[in-house]
## 1
Amino acid sequence: MRNDTINKIMFDKIEFVMTRISGEVERAMRVQEDITSKPPTTTEWK
């Protein structure tokens, strides 16, 4: 139960930041956050 609560808090914060960025940055249509421990990669949008 504790892990579920921590995960919800983390994802709520990430969602808040991503929503704010897409709302305040001109021409930002999408925000992607990689929360994995793997090195960053290039993402191609279709």
## 2
Amino acid sequence: MRLGWALVCGLALGAAAWWWTTRDEREHARIEHERKAAAAAEAARPRLYRWRDDSGVLHITEQPPKGRKYQRIEREPYDGIEVHGDRRADLPDSPGP
């Protein structure tokens, strides 16, 4: 019976020692995973580009213009606002003039 308890205690101490010695590695792996996920999320965020043509007309496009100055616009809605792809899909038919 004492041998059984000695084996159980040895296994528990071995598992505790393994956990203690590898905790920094797990923490670094978790931080690296979070950093990669944040970078992927940042890269996936859509952007718009605001620029003016030679006539002074304002354009807003998803691709930056070549050879022109432009301003990058983050396409993030304000908190509490839902954005859907088709704005008219949820609107009732409005009466004509």
